[in-house]
Amino acid sequence: MDAKQAAAHKAVEYIKDGMVVGLGTGSTAYWAIQYLAERVKQGLRVTTVATSAETEKIARECGIVVEEIDSVGSIDIDIDGADEIDAGMNLVKGGGGALLREKIVAAASREFIVIAGGNKRVDTLGKFPLPVEVIPFGWKHTAKQLAALGCTPSLRKKDGQNFITDSGNYIIDCHFGSIPEPATLQQQINNIAGVVENGLFVKMATRVVLGYDDGTTKEFF
Ligand code: 5RP
């Protein structure tokens, strides 16, 4: 069991029979879906909602029923990965481009468990470029305003084309280097016209499970 698997396996233990579960996106969340599928095969009953089309597909392929988010009244537990995690459990997310739906699901969840390899833990956020989801219309102007906040913005590409999110938007990766005040920055970014959402998740996580390659985990909450 590697670091990602260890974190995912531990987090899935918090899922109880009858819960509504948010399924995260990315290579660590992938393992949480696999471990949840094993438990479902053993008889665990859960309702799930997905944070991306990719996750929905993976979950369905391994036999998990996925519902529309607005068909569930509330979400008991959301398990998702992160690109960076600081000591205050603030996160940078969106490496996989799913930050908008990930934030909506996390915000609607009673418990939001973040799973990651121990290497994602940082003293200060910002080394990982901050993903910002923007409306395609006028994106270069939006990027200029992001740059004015002190970053170098770059439009995300995939296979030579502009990366398109599940909601039909672009991602601008913002290279800040260091984000000492994530709470302030997330407000400043979301005040820019054209910005849909940013990948800073401030004071949203209720528990962090870090995994290590020897199969052990460490938890913060
Ligand atoms: C996707 C995300 C992912 O959770 C984040 O990028 C971490 O991915 P991984 O577990 O593959 O390292 O935010 O938008």
Strand order of the largest sheet: 3-2-1-4-7-15-16
Total domain modules:
2
How would you spell out the order of helices and strands?
HEHEHEEEEHEEHEEEEHEEEE
Q: What is the fold-level CATH name, i.e. the topology of the largest domain?
A: Rossmann fold
Gap between N and C termini, in Å?
23 Å
Bound molecules: ribulose-5-phosphate
Describe the fold and architecture.
The chain has 221 residues and is of the alpha/beta class. Helix 3 links the parallel strand 2 (47-50) and strand 3 (66-67). The strands form four sheets. It has a seven-stranded mixed β-sheet with strand order 3-2-1-4-7-15-16, with helices on both faces. A four-stranded antiparallel β-sheet has the order 9-12-8-13, covered by helices on one side. The protein has a three-stranded antiparallel β-sheet with strand order 5-6-14, covered by helices on one side. Helices cover 28% and strands 29% of the residues. It has two domains: 3-122 and 202-214, Rossmann fold, CATH 3.40.50.1360; 130-198, ACT domain (Alpha-Beta Plaits), CATH 3.30.70. It has helices at residues 3-12, 27-41, 53-61, 99-107, 139-147, 182-190, and strands at 20-23, 47-50, 66-67, 75-80, 84-85, 91-92, 109-117, 130-134, 152-155, 157-158, 161-162, 170-175, 195-198, 200-201, 207-211, 217-220. The protein is globular, with a radius of gyration of 17 Å. Helix 1 crosses helix 2. The protein has six helices and 16 strands. The chain binds ribulose-5-phosphate. Ribulose-5-phosphate (5RP) binds next to helix 2 and helix 4.
